[in-house]
Design goal:
mainly beta; 8 helices; 55% strand
Amino acid sequence: MRPIFIVAKRIRTESRADPNCARLPGWPPRSGMVFAAIAMIAAQTALATEENLQLAENDYARMSLEELANVSVTSVSKKPEPLSLAAASIYVITNDDIRRSGATRLPEALRLAPNLEVAQVSANQYAISARGFDSQSANKLLVLIDGRSVYTPLFSGVFWDVQNVMLEDVDRIEVISGPGGTLWGTNAVNGVINIITRSAKSTQGGLATANGGNLESGGALRYGAGAGENGDFRVYGKYLDVDSTSTASGSAKPDSLHMGQGGFRYDWSRVANEFSIQANAYQGTEGQPLPGTISIKGDNYTLGTESLSGNNVTAHGNHVFDNGSSLSVMTYFDNTKRVVPPTFTEDLHIFDIEIQHSLRPTAHHSLVWGGEYRRDVDQVTNSTYFGFLPGHVDQHWASLFAQDEWTLTNTLHTTVGARVESNPYTGSDLLPSARIAWSPSTSTLLWSAVSRAVRSPSRLDHDTYVPEKPPFLLDGGQNVGSEKVNVYELGYRGQPTTDSTLSVTLFHADYTHLRSQELGATHRFVYYANGLKGWTNGLEMWGTWQAMENWRLSVGMNTLRERLSLYPGSSRVTNIPVLESAGMDPANTCMLRSAWDLPASTELDLTVRHVASLGYPTVPAYTETNARVGWHATARLDLSLDAQNLFNQRHGEFADISTRTQLGRSIQFKLAAKF
């Protein structure tokens, strides 16, 4: 179910979609095999020569635990700092983690973060959140790709089906659980995911990848080279072909995904100046899975195949002054088109520019401040029974932020910041935060934080009407306001021993003015308001142990407790699904990963994940075991075999049993060749 259909489904949904999902014209169903042939040719070229190999800027595979604990991160303070000194619940997924996991899609790579909830809903849809409130339309998690926000103002969330990042080019993924509104703005309520790709300089030469299995196939080609004395570039193209899934009853779901994407990146640097520009374009199709038919006022409408396309351009410049301060400017254009027959078509155009100044006024404190402006032009073509009114909007966001870090003593630091952000629905919101960190030793950090975050309304909250013309069953949300949360955190990060690391975070969050559905005066329609409140608390913990020089174990777990309630006067009848939605989050999850380097350039990776049951709708708990065997055949050729859900315990992860995708064993072969 798409996020846009939540309201329509609550009114009445039934039946199923046409299983005949069209494929992207010009691409065969197993296009990954074409890439396999290309990759084999590249492999032969690779075997012929071994010179001019390039190392990534962060060669995580060769790093010790101490080096990994001090990897530079930027998401916590918007400036580089060692992970060991970052006063936040942050987990870093490295490029080597992604490679050894066997992940081929971004949501699967995000499963590596123990502070995220990742549930597969269908072949093309995922529910991803942090610290609760998970759903396909999760709207409290901000996601960035090289600084470009992939949040959509349609529902304040992320369309995961079109985030088709080339994982081989990802340097790291910084995952913060907890609010990040001071630096990143509204909608960074429960977390921030910052995906950072490698520079063009570190991806020189050619790379061909191909993967194929019983559930999906795909491949990619990438080439990078120098461009003048101070410049470098890379270009890439990739394709993904995901088969349809089935339900517990064995019924096929029309949810296949077929996506092609390409792009380039150019980097230039000289002395105190840096500049980069990158662009991506994609096009694809996907099926709309069950329930598949919307019924409005007795008329049934079958959902067709979705058409997805888009392009984006991001530019970033940075200058370091003689006094050590720096000024950076980032801007991007993002254009997307989504055709969802017969419900709606959306053309969205986003322009964003951010200016940031980092300086150290005195020896005891450093300041980061700046401003951001964003403009969205959204054109929706409505259907007769579902509409965003008005269909065309031109919206503007603006904000100013500042964060100051003070060094009180050699071991005690405090950080205070705030952002003021205006939005087209509710005016201005204030997003303050305060953190204190104590480092009694070089291997220990204790920290605490108090923050306020806000989710501003989206078009789904404010402009949704069912049907498009009166009398309405859903009468919009003209008075809906921002959702607010105050969060309190206490954390520890350190190295208890020379061969282990540990991170622990306790948190409590108080939510107010959460979105609700209220009965109209005549009890014949509903509308959106802010009639809910609630709280969550929990524990997040993860660590690593270097058991042997060639064997590393990683463990992660989190627990979550949440409670929602109504403000006086709110309708319990219309909000029962929302009140029960706390059951859409597992009370606990845990994960164990083993990375073992064997003789003869062979790797053995095992992952065991356990996810507790969900209460609404009921989804049983499950335990999944995945395995990967990798072989570095040469310095330029890697082969691997991945087995997911190894013991074939078919399980669902989200949604009602009648429409729930059941995931069984999958086998996948992957080849990566440099040339």
